[in-house]
TrEMBL record, chain A:
Role summary: Component of the general transcription and DNA repair factor IIH (TFIIH) core complex, which is involved in general and transcription-coupled nucleotide excision repair (NER) of damaged DNA and, when complexed to CAK, in RNA transcription by RNA polymerase II. In NER, TFIIH acts by opening DNA around the lesion to allow the excision of the damaged oligonucleotide and its replacement by a new DNA fragment. In transcription, TFIIH has an essential role in transcription initiation.
GO molecular function ontology, one term from the record: zinc ion binding
Name of the featured protein: General transcription factor IIH subunit 3
GO CC annotation terms, alphabetical: transcription factor TFIIH core complex; transcription factor TFIIH holo complex
Compartmental location: Nucleus
UniProtKB/TrEMBL annotation, chain B:
Gene Ontology biological-process entries: nucleotide-excision repair; transcription by RNA polymerase II
High-level lineage: Eukaryota, Metazoa, Ecdysozoa, Arthropoda, Crustacea
The UniProt record lists the keyword tRNA-binding: no
Function statement: Component of the general transcription and DNA repair factor IIH (TFIIH) core complex which is involved in general and transcription-coupled nucleotide excision repair (NER) of damaged DNA.
One term of GO molecular function: double-stranded DNA binding
Domain of life of the source: Eukaryota
Assigned keywords, A-Z: DNA damage, DNA repair, Nucleus, Transcription, Transcription regulation
Chain ranges of the Transcription factor Tfb2 C-terminal domain: 393-460
Signal peptide span: none
Protein name in UniProt: General transcription factor IIH subunit 4
Keyword Cytoplasm: no
Principal subcellular localization: nucleus
GO cellular component: transcription factor TFIIH core complex; transcription factor TFIIH holo complex
Pfam families for this protein: Tfb2 (PF03849), Tfb2_C (PF18307)
Amino acid sequence: MAGDGCLLVMVVDLHPQLAEQESNVHNYLSACISFANIHLAANVKNTLAVIAANHLETRFLYPQITGKTVDRQKDGRLELLCQVDESIERELRNMIVPDPKADQTESLISGAIGRGLLYIKRQETEDVLGKKVHARILVVKISLDTGSQYLNYINTYLTAQKISTPLDVCVIGSDCGLLQQGADISGGYYHCVQEVSELLQCLILMYQADVVTRKKLNVPPPDSVDYRAACFCHRTLVDMGNVCSNCLSVYCKAVPLCTTCNVIFQTDRPLMKIVKKKK
Amino acid sequence: MSTFGTQTLTCKNLQDYLRSLTKDVLDRLYRHPATCLAVFRELPELSKQFILRLLFVTRPVPQVLLATWKPQHEPGKDLGDIAAEHRQGTQVLLDMAIWQEVNDHHGNLAIRLSNTFRDNLKVAILGGGKPWTMSAALDSDPHQRDVEFLDKYAMDRWESVLQFLVQPGQGQTAISRDAMRTLLHAGLIESSDESDNMQITSSGFQFLLLDTASQVWFFILKYLETVTERGLSLVACLTFLFKLSFSILGKDYSMEGMDNELLTFLQHLREFGLVYLRKRSSGRFYPTRLALNITAGQNKGNIDVPKQGYLVIETNYRIYAYTVSELQIALLSIFSDIEGRFPNMVVTSVSRGSVRRALLKGIGAEQIISFLRQHCHPQMFKNNPVVPRTVADQIKLWELERERLEFNEGVLYKDFMSVHDFSLLSNFASSKGVLIYSDEKQRTMVVTKKGHPAIKLFWKEAQAK
């Protein structure tokens, strides 16, 4: 399998809050691009897709439909890699817009993962001989997360698990329980780095190897996974919640009616009272 | 185990080839980004990881730390194979002088990535440094060539070399003396007597059945072996070849700044169809698909020239070949009998006789089957397996037929004085694993040649007691 090459789909977080630390932006982006380059350089058959996500949209940075080719080599570097960089940089410029209103919402990472999965699936169906594409997804996330995309996340995780595509997650700064679940479900790695400057070395150490080679290398022991679910009413992670017996929706407090499937819960005690009490 | 002295054609991959070079040559090779990247790509997966992990680490890394890269022991998991792979991955890097063994400031044994290699690999992947010589600026070419043209040109050139192999007598004029010299050197053809009468060898037949990428790589390897005789520098040629292999198809490259040596080399590559030059003075060349990823050799068949498969194989051992190319028909007739020729198609059949004929020439069953698989018509790819199982199995059986006898070199021990002596020696031999044959009634035994000295010593000691 090692010789068959691997499709790496990188999901890069481009939340505007990134721009707050000027020095980090450069390090962060160049680490991501360098890692993409290393992946392509490591094997002739390796392929790459880069999807960026900010709070407003997700966008394919590479590959591009309209590929403009570089005229000549500018330095002693592989020409193909130059083209990859140019494509990514060009799209980045289009995408990064300073938006002061953006601080509440989080990046649309789950949507980007979904597009990545679709891209993998398309590559598979486009192959004439119906060959299995060895693919994996790598999510690099820097923004803080809220539980608002909980359902979307879980859906993409289960899809990834179903098409046996490992989902690797590298988080910068604070731990992200939601993404950790995804890595755990789909059989990928999860790691959290403290500083942006450590990012590239960490990516190389942990995420460069393909699935087969990984088994032959040592990895840091996995942390316990935070499997808390987000409630459907306020999108916050709950330790203990109420689950709808009909559709398994999670609520942080008891409700008389499931907002997802509209079923009315029949209980012997009047529910409204309890709700009122809490208020 | 192979019998009757037939040799299978072995094609070294790039890694084996580089390991056969001297440290000095390797050091000079690593001075260019292109070679570093080519070398890096062909390493085993684990070795690649080892290099990448140290790519940004400038200080020597102690061996103790490297040992922690092996996966931790878990119950019920056998780590023996993985440990062996780690050792092998390390050994490759040390052999190729990419890793150097040094002592760190505590005096412990440590490993450092070769500085030249590190710097140039970084340049190749992440940028920096100077552009490669062939990438000098060029005006747009008035005679721009497209990919289709280059593919056709390359295939025509390459097929003329193959054509010469199939019918050495006729194609004398078709290929240059240089190509012929390489073929002779590679042992693909031999001149039967003093006259110029060439004849294809058993290796030559096996060569013909390889896929194009492997053929080109094998041919270039052999060419490189003779390169110093031609007065060219091996390092310069290899470096150029690697640069070429990373170029982009359908793009023109400049000949500016190339010295006479390289220009000669370029001319040779032109003869084999690896590059296209409109004329010598045009100052630019186009690499063809044959030159791209040349280093990938056998590992990566799919970057082959896109060729329409043309063989339809039926379970009744008939092959329908939709081709008009003399070369393809000649290749088919190596192992099958032609039954009928039509304007656009040839019908042949595989039989015991025809396959045995091929086997006698030294071609293996596996090679025939892989040839059939490579050239199957797209329709055939819908079947699984692509080549009908009956046909593939039967060809293998026909090969096995010829290998009923197994030859082993050995030393015969006989005329033992007593049964005790005999059993003592035969027990010792079998415990060492060197016993090939023993017969108690006749009191004879045969041990392998390797085991002979040990047995002799043991016997002498036993006698002395």
